[in-house]
Amino acid sequence: MEHRVNEIQISYREKLSTLKSLSVTNSNEVANLLFKNWDNKTIGLHETFKIVLLNQSNKVKGIYPLSHGGITGTLVDLRILFAITLKTLSVGIILAHNHPSGQLKASYQDKQLTQKIKEAAQLFDVKILDHLILAPDGRYYSFADNGIL
């Protein structure tokens, strides 16, 4: 057949360690987890955007580094974000990125991107639980804690 569509194969195996993993319940726990899994050498150098993948009990399935950018920004491809989310059968995600400048104010672009991701997530019944901005000095800003999620 000349115009046959290529088959897409997806596989996912739940690790037993997920069942024993941390169940995150607040932004401080998530921030601590993210800081432990962020490269200290680059957190003040360039922006990185990551997603924390969660199961139904808010247990952490993994942290995926979605993009690495420049000093003042990074691009987020929603198709890749949701491909990872759906492939891992995650029902909730937490968004995170760093501000190398240490500025913890959410920019207009940060708010727009969060809203765009939130709207797309509703189509897949995926919950966006928070979006954290991390500063190199260990501080963080939580969209959920500040009522803008």
Fold and architecture overview:
- With 149 residues, the chain is of the alpha+beta class.
- Helices cover 28% and strands 23% of the residues.
- It contains 4 helices and 5 strands; from the N terminus they run ααββαβαββ.
- A 5-stranded mixed sheet has the order 2-1-3-4-5, sandwiched between helices.
- Strand 1 and strand 2 form a beta hairpin.
- The longest helix is centred in the C-terminal third of the chain and has 16 residues.
- It is globular, with a radius of gyration of 16 Å.
**Helices and strands, in N-to-C order?**
HHEEHEHEE
Cα-atom radius of gyration = 16 Å
In spatial order, strands of the major sheet run 2-1-3-4-5
Question: In percent terms, what proportion of residues is strand?
Answer: 15-25%
Organism: Flagellimonas profundi
Protein name: JAB domain-containing protein
InterPro entries: MPN (IPR037518), RadC_JAB (IPR025657), UPF0758 (IPR001405), UPF0758_CS (IPR020891)
Keywords: Hydrolase, Metal-binding, Metalloprotease, Protease, Zinc
